[in-house]
Amino acid sequence: MKRTIASICLMALSLTAFSCAANSAKPASSTGAAPAAAPAAAKSGKGTIAKPGDKAPSVPKTGIPEGKKLPVPDNWETYYDAQKGYEFAVPEGTQTNQQTVDNVDIFVAMLPAPAKVQVMVVAFKNKNVNKADLLETAKRVLASLGEKDIKVGSQTEISDDYDVVEISSVDEKGVTTRAKLLLATDVTDNYLVFAGSPDADYKANETIIDEVWGSFSMYSGGSSGQS
Hints:
Helix content is 21%, strand content 36%.
């Protein structure tokens, strides 16, 4: 599921159209406010990588509950985007890129060898969606990137804010990617966290995949709290 920024931009535009349609088609069903949106328009950039020993912003966070995630190694770095309101950890040496198109933010990370893991975080606002809607959106994201034969496996509710889903898809070269997909929703802010590997390498990389999605946190009080 290796993708260029150009293809990710197209995906973001597709997702923006979906988000706008969903907003107009559904009545408001969620409460609360959310952090201010990133400026509209297409731009490349980076969030902030906290240096080893440094800490991400000291703000209220809603993460994966203890006991339902794996601890990350001490030498991992924390990526955080204070504007979009999330953070997670990746190994030192991870290559990253980011694109924002009309307030849809896409962050892509390629973990360093020997891991064969790619991570993609999609962040967008829509106060009218729930986790079931997010799963459908995730399938749209994969389809917009040219993925075929998208299959959804087991879905586990971790909390009111998070579900984790096993998902697979096949690219244009016939390569199957298996991933864990974290669905995260917080009042009006929504996140899709894909962490996956080629099918042939999935079992060898499953632990690091679980460490990545398990390190994700939202900067707020969760779906039923204050954002």
